[in-house]
C-alpha cells in the first residue's frame, strides 16, 4: 500500500500570514529544514550571517517538545516534534528526488491558486519559509503543461512569489518579474553586513532587520524615516516601498541571540 504524501505547502498557517487576508491575500509557504538539519546545507549564508541559532525554524510550534527532547538525524539538533520531522522529510524529498518534488510542488500551487480564488483572495507564494534556496536557478519539466520547461516562477507568471534571503549576490542578477526578494541583514560578520549595505545602496535591496529593543518601532522609525516598515504588521514584503527598511521584533530563540543577527538598537 502506497503511503500518502504529506502536503508541501502550509497555507496561512501562522499568525502573520493570516494578517494578509485583511489586505486581500492568501499565502502559501514551503517550510523546509534550514541549514544542514536535513543533511545538505539549504541556507548557504547561515554560518556567515550567524542566523541558525536564532532561526524562526524553532519558534512557535517548531520549538515545542516534551521534556525539551531533541533529534539530530543529520547531526544538527532540533526540537523533537512533528513540525521538525515534517520539515526534514520534505527537505529529503527535495534533495533525493528533485524532479518529483518539483512536480508535486507545481500541482500543490495549482490547487492553492484555485482555493484562494474561490475565497475571493489573491494567492501569493513564499518558497523559502525556513530555507534559502535559489529557486530561480531550478528548471523542471511541467506535468500541468505537458512538455513545458522552466522555473516555477515562469510556470505561474501571474502569481506573486516572494522570499527573504541572505544571499546578497542574488540582487546582482535580474530576477523573474513575479519574484520579490528582501535581504535579511545581520552584523554577525562585518563582511556580510557590508554586502547587505552595498546591495541596498547599489540595487535598492530592501533590508529586513531583526531587533530586540522594546522601543524598536520608535528607534527604527528615527533611523529609516519614510523607508520604515513594521514587518510584524504582515508578511507581504512585495507591497513594501522600494528601498524599504523592514524591522521585525525578535521571536523564539532569537530573543536570546548574541551573534549579531539580532540588532540591539539602544
Can you give keywords for this protein?
18% strand, alpha/beta, 9-stranded mixed sheet, globular, two-stranded antiparallel sheet, 27% helix, 266 residues
The main β sheet shows up as:
9 strands, mixed
- Report the end-to-end length measured between terminal Cα atoms: 59 Å
In percent, how much strand structure appears in the residues? 15-25%
Helical residues, percent: 25-40%
The ordered H/E elements are EHEHEEHHEEEHEEHEHEEE
What shape does the CA trace take? Answer: globular
Task: List the domain count as a whole number.
Answer: 1
Give the uncertain stretches in residue-range form. Answer: none
How many runs of DSSP E, i.e. beta strands? 13
- State the secondary-structure class: alpha/beta
Average residue-wise pLDDT: 89
With helices defined by DSSP (H or I, 4 residues minimum), what is the helix count? 7
Report Rg.
18 Å
How would you describe this protein?
The chain is an alpha/beta fold and 266 residues long. It is built from seven helices and 13 strands. Strands 1, 2, 5, 8, 9, 10, 11, 12 and 13 form a nine-stranded mixed β-sheet that branches. Strand 3 (70-71) and strand 4 form a beta hairpin. Helix 3 crosses helix 4 (98-118). The chain is globular. 39% of the residues are buried.
Amino acid at each position: 500500500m502506497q503511503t500518502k504524501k504529506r502536503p508541501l505547502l502550509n497555507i496561512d498557517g501562522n499568525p502573520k500570514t493570516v494578517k494578509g487576508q485583511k489586505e486581500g491575500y492568501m499565502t502559501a509557504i514551503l517550510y523546509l529544514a534550514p541549514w544542514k538539519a536535513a543533511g545538505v546545507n539549504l541556507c548557504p549564508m547561515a554560518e556567515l550571517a550567524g542566523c541558525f541559532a536564532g532561526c524562526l525554524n524553532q519558534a512557535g510550534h517548531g520549538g515545542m517538545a516534551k521534556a525539551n527532547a531533541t533529534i539530530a538525524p543529520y547531526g544538527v539538533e532540533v526540537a523533537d516534534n512533528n513540525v521538525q520531522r515534517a520539515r526534514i522529510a520534505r527537505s529529503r524529498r527535495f534533495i533525493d528526488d528533485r524532479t518529483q518534488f518539483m512536480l508535486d510542488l507545481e500541482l500543490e500551487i495549482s490547487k492553492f491558486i484555485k482555493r484562494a480564488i474561490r475565497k475571493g483572495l489573491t494567492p501569493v507564494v513564499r518558497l523559502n519559509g525556513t530555507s534559502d534556496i535559489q529557486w530561480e536557478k531550478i528548471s523542471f519539466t511541467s506535468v500541468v503543461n505537458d512538455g513545458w520547461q522552466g522555473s516555477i516562477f515562469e510556470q505561474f507568471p501571474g502569481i506573486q512569489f516572494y522570499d527573504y534571503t541572505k544571499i546578497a549576490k542574488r540582487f546582482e542578477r535580474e530576477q523573474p518579474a513575479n519574484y520579490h526578494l528582501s535581504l535579511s541583514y545581520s552584523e554577525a560578520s562585518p563582511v556580510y553586513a557590508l554586502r547587505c549595505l552595498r546591495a541596498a545602496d547599489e540595487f535598492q535591496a530592501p533590508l529586513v532587520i531583526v531587533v530586540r529593543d522594546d522601543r524598536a518601532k520608535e528607534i527604527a522609525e528615527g533611523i529609516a524615516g519614510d523607508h520604515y516598515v513594521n514587518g510584524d504588521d504582515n508578511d507581504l514584503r512585495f507591497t513594501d516601498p522600494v528601498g524599504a527598511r523592514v524591522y521585525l521584533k525578535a521571536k523564539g530563540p532569537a530573543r536570546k541571540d548574541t551573534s549579531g543577527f539580532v540588532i540591539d538598537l539602544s
